[in-house]
Structure to design on (189 residues):
């Protein structure tokens, strides 16, 4: 599928949660995109080096279960099919072959880290950045990046928090879409 205006929402999605769902729905409502691609990191190099990350095939299955039915959204395995670390710049370059423009969609908690991304200086020349607000204040945009805010009510939820929730479907149902729960629980240690 080709798209004139493509939004890229990448991540580890370990697990995907209602905050991700809210961000995707807000991005779709913004009318900025023809398609929003959710790309699951194959080797999330900034996270895999610092701790346990569930297998890529499980994270992809959870993302498909969580986001597959959302308006404008397609879930992609493009970073999983690639060998080596998953770099946003590589995905953007691929997507620019099929779209006129690519905007990154990121949570406000990530904007301070974007300059540490692989080839960040080049990446900032290729994309605009739609920033999803997080609880706790105004969204700050990093210098040198072309950013705008995607309007939505902030959701106070993170995958890190969910990984600390005691096992059991009743404990997860307020945080994770129902189809994700059995997949996530099947791989708990």
């Amino acid at each position: 599928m080709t798209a004139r205006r493509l939004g890229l929402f990448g991540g580890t999605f370990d697990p995907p949660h209602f905050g991700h769902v809210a961000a995707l729905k807000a991005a779709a409502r913004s009318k900025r995109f023809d398609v929003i691609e959710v790309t699951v990191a194959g080797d999330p190099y900034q996270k895999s080096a610092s701790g346990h990350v569930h297998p890529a095939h499980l994270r992809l299955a959870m993302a498909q279960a969580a986001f597959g039915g959302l308006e404008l959204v397609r879930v992609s395995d493009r970073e999983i099919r690639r060998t080596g670390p998953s770099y946003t710049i590589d995905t953007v370059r691929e997507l620019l072959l099929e779209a006129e423009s690519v905007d990154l969609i990121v949570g406000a908690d990530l904007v301070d880290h974007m300059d540490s991304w692989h080839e960040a200086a080049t990446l900032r020349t290729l994309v605009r950045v739609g920033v999803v607000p997080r609880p706790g204040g105004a969204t700050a945009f990093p210098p040198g990046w072309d950013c705008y805010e995607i309007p939505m009510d902030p959701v106070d939820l993170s995958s890190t928090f969910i990984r600390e929730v005691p096992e059991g479907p009743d404990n997860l149902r307020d945080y994770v879409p129902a189809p994700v729960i059995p997949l996530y629980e099947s791989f708990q240690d």
